[in-house]
């Protein structure tokens, strides 16, 4: 069952773009934007992750961090982060377990049998790890409403 508003965000461990094991719980005490995206270096995902990059100073003022999550391997995520100067943590969900437990995956993506990617989704967690905002798109080409994300963050004390 996908994660919804009011749920305690399930903790997880994933490797980041530097192959360092990271736990969601290490970000407790801060607001967290979990941004799931289908694939590094694709046009819509690049635009989305760069939009979050461009919002980092605003998010920082709200004491929030962004964690980008995709099924890409950490090596691809490192190249993606560097080429777009993202400046925030990207997490590799290569097993797809976290994507499945949060927003779900697109199976047989783009007609490629057996290939699955994370659905584009945004979850905002408060300082205690409770989900305060959840958005999951069935359309991989649809970007989140960035204004709505910023408003949801600003409502969390």
Structure description:
This protein has 157 residues and is of the alpha+beta class. Helix content is 27%, strand content 25%. It is built from five helices and nine strands. The strands form two sheets. The chain has a seven-stranded mixed sheet. Strands 6-7 form a two-stranded antiparallel ribbon. The two termini are 28 Å apart. The mean pLDDT is 95.
Keywords:
single chain; 157 residues; alpha+beta; Glutaredoxin; 7-stranded mixed β-sheet; two-stranded antiparallel ribbon; 5 helices
Q: What's the count of strands?
A: 9
Taking the alpha carbons of the first and last residues, their distance comes to: 28 Å
For the record, the count of structural domains works out to 1
* Percent in strands: 15-25%
SSE topology:
Blueprint: E1 13-16, E2 21-23, E3 31-36, H1 43-54, H2 56-61, E4 64-70, H3 74-83, E5 89-92, H4 97-102, E6 105-106, E7 117-118, E8 121-125, E9 131-136, H5 146-154
Parallel strand pairs: 3-4, 4-5
Antiparallel strand pairs: 1-2, 1-5, 3-8, 6-7, 8-9
Q: Can you give me a brief rundown of this structure?
A:
The chain is of the alpha+beta class and 157 residues long. It has helices spanning 43-54, 56-61, 74-83, 97-102, 146-154; strands at residues 13-16, 21-23, 31-36, 64-70, 89-92, 105-106, 117-118, 121-125, 131-136. The strands form 2 sheets. It has a 7-stranded mixed beta sheet. A two-stranded antiparallel sheet has the order 6-7.
């Amino acid at each position: 069952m996908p994660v919804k508003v009011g749920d305690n965000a399930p903790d997880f461990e994933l490797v980041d773009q530097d192959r360092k094991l990271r736990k969601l719980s290490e970000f407790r005490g801060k607001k967290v934007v979990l941004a799931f995206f289908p694939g590094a270096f694709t046009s819509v995902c690049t635009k989305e992750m760069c939009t979050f990059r461009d919002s980092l100073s605003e998010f920082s003022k709200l004491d929030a961090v962004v964690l980008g999550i995709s099924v890409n391997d950490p090596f691809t995520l490192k190249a993606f982060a560097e080429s777009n100067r993202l400046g925030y943590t990207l997490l590799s969900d290569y097993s797809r377990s976290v994507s499945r437990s949060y927003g779900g995956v697109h199976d047989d993506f783009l007609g490629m049998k057996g290939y699955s990617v994370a659905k584009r989704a945004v979850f905002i967690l408060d300082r205690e790890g409770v989900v305060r905002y959840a958005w999951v798109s069935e359309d991989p080409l649809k970007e989140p409403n960035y204004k709505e994300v910023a408003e949801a963050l600003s409502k969390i004390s």
